[in-house]
C-alpha cells in the first residue's frame, strides 16, 4: 500500500472525508452567485429568476406533501391560511403542526 | 415594477444581524429535530462526537449529512471518498439555485463576508432572507444573522442528539416529520404576488412530482425548480 492509501485508511481518513464533503458543499453554495455574476441579465432571464424562489419551495415540498396524503395537505393548507390572514410566521407554523397533530390523534 | 430598479442599494448593518437572528425563530423546530436526528444517526453509525460535530460544523447541510452517513466508512479509500463527494454534490446541487437568486443582493458585498454568508446558506436562512428581500429589505446583515443563529442551533442540537438519541419522542405523533414542509409553505405566502406570477410555481411543483415519481434520488428539486424558471421565462 502506498503512503497515501495508508493515510486515507487511518483515522485521518475520516477528517479527509469530512473536508472533501465540506469543500464540495461550499462549491455548491458559491457557484450560483459566481454563475449569475458572469451572466448578462436580460429581461427574459430576470423573469425566470423572479419565478425561482417560489419554484424552489414548491419543488421541494410538493412531492413530500402528496406522498404523506390528505392529513399533510390539510396541515399545509391550514398553515398557509393562517399565515395569509395574520402574516405571523410562527402562528402559521403552529397552525400547520397543530392541525397535523389533531388529525393524526383522531385517526 | 421590477424589484431591482425601484429598490435602494444593498447595505450591511449590525441591526440587520439582530433582525435576521430573530426572524429565524420559526426555523428552529425543524433545525433542532433534524440536527438531533443526525446526531443520533451519527452515533449509531459509529462516528465519534468530534466527527459528527465536524460534519455538522463544516458541511452544515442536513439532507447531505444524512446521505453521507449511508456511505460512511470505518476505513476510507480514495474510491469511497469519491463516492461520498459525488452523493454530496448531487444532494447539494440545489444550493446552486439558492445562490443564483441571492446574487443581485450580494453583488456589492466584500468577498470574505459573502463567502461566510454563503457558507451559512441553508434553505431556511435563504427563505428568511428571500422573504425580507421581497418585502423591500436590502440589509445583507439579515441574511447573515439568520445564517449564524441557525448554524449555532444546528451545532447544539447535533451534540444533544448524539447523546440523547434514544430519548427523542416519536416525531410523527406531533406532526414533527412534516415540520420543514410546513415551514416552507408558510414562507411561500409572503412571496405571493397574484396567480399569474405563481404559474411557474405550479409548473415547478408538477415537474418535481413527476420526476420524484420516476427517478430515484434528490434530482427532483433541481428539475422542478429549473422547470419553474423556464416557465417564468416563457410566460410574458
In short:
The complex is a heterodimer of chains A (107) and B (236). Chain A has 107 residues and is an all-alpha fold.
Description of the molecule:
The complex is a heterodimer of chains A (107) and B (236). By secondary structure, chain A is mainly alpha-helical. Chain A has two domains: 1-39; 52-107, no CATH class. In chain A, 88% of the residues lie in helices and 0% in strands. Chain A has helices spanning 3-9, 12-38, 43-67, 70-86, 89-106. In chain A, helix 4 runs antiparallel to helix 5. With 236 residues, chain B is mostly helical. Chain B folds into two domains: 14-191, no CATH class; 193-236. Helices cover 71% and strands 0% of the residues of chain B. Chain B contains 13 helices and no strands. Chain B has helices spanning 3-6, 14-23, 28-45, 49-59, 62-70, 78-92, 95-106, 111-119, 123-134, 140-164, 179-188, 199-214, 219-234. The longest helix of chain B has 25 residues, at 140-164. The radius of gyration of chain B is 19 Å and the shape is globular. The two termini of chain B are 14 Å apart. The mean pLDDT of chain B is 92. The chains are: A mainly alpha (107), B mainly alpha (236). At the A-B interface, helix 1, helix 2, helix 3, helix 4 and helix 5 of A face helix 4, helix 6, helix 7, helix 8 and helix 9 of B.
Give a quick set of tags describing it:
heterodimer; A: 107 residues; mainly alpha; B: 2 domains
Give the H and E element order of chain A.
HHHHH
Secondary-structure-based class of chain A equals mainly alpha
Principal-axis shape of chain B: globular
Average of pLDDT of chain B: 92
Number of strands of chain B: 0
Residue share in helices of chain B? over 70%
Give me the oligomer status.
heterodimer
Number of helices of chain B: 13
What structural class do you assign from the helix and strand content of chain B? Answer: mainly alpha
Order of helices and strands of chain B: HHHHHHHHHHHHH
Classify the helix fraction of chain A into a percent range.
over 70%
Uncertain residue segments of chain A: none
Distance between the termini of chain B: 14 Å
Uncertain stretches of 5 or more adjacent residues of chain B: none
Number of helices of chain A: 5
Amino acid at each position: 500500500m502506498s503512503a497515501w492509501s495508508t493515510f486515507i485508511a487511518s483515522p485521518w481518513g475520516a477528517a479527509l472525508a469530512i473536508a472533501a464533503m465540506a469543500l464540495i458543499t461550499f462549491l455548491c453554495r458559491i457557484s450560483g452567485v459566481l454563475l449569475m455574476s458572469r451572466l448578462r441579465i436580460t429581461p427574459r432571464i430576470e423573469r425566470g429568476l423572479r419565478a425561482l424562489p417560489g419554484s424552489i419551495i414548491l419543488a421541494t415540498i410538493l412531492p413530500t406533501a402528496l406522498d404523506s396524503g390528505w392529513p399533510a395537505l390539510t396541515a399545509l393548507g391550514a398553515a398557509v391560511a393562517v399565515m395569509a390572514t395574520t402574516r405571523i410566521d410562527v402562528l402559521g407554523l403552529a397552525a400547520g403542526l397543530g392541525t397535523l397533530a389533531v388529525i393524526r390523534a383522531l385517526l | 415594477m421590477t424589484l431591482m430598479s425601484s429598490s435602494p442599494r444593498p447595505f450591511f448593518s449590525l441591526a440587520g444581524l439582530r433582525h435576521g437572528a430573530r426572524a429565524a425563530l420559526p426555523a428552529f423546530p425543524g433545525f433542532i429535530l433534524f440536527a438531533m436526528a443526525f446526531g443520533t444517526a451519527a452515533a449509531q453509525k459509529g462516528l465519534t462526537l468530534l466527527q459528527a460535530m465536524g460534519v455538522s460544523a463544516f458541511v452544515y447541510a442536513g439532507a447531505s449529512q444524512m446521505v453521507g452517513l449511508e456511505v460512511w466508512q470505518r476505513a476510507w479509500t480514495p474510491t469511497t471518498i469519491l463516492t461520498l463527494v459525488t452523493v454530496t454534490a448531487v444532494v447539494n446541487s440545489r444550493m446552486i439555485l439558492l445562490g443564483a437568486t441571492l446574487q443581485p443582493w450580494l453583488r456589492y458585498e466584500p468577498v470574505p463576508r459573502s463567502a461566510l454568508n454563503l457558507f451559512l446558506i441553508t434553505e431556511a436562512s435563504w427563505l428568511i432572507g428571500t422573504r425580507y428581500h421581497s418585502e423591500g429589505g436590502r440589509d445583507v446583515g439579515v441574511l447573515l444573522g439568520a445564517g449564524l443563529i441557525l448554524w449555532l442551533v444546528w451545532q447544539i442540537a447535533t451534540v444533544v442528539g448524539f447523546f440523547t438519541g434514544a430519548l427523542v419522542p416519536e416525531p410523527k405523533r406531533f406532526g414533527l416529520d412534516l415540520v420543514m414542509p410546513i415551514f416552507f409553505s408558510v414562507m411561500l405566502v409572503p412571496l405571493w404576488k397574484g396567480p399569474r406570477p405563481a404559474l411557474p410555481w405550479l409548473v415547478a411543483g408538477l415537474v418535481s412530482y413527476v420526476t420524484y415519481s420516476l427517478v430515484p434520488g434528490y434530482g427532483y428539486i433541481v428539475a422542478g425548480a429549473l422547470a419553474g424558471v423556464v416557465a417564468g421565462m416563457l410566460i410574458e
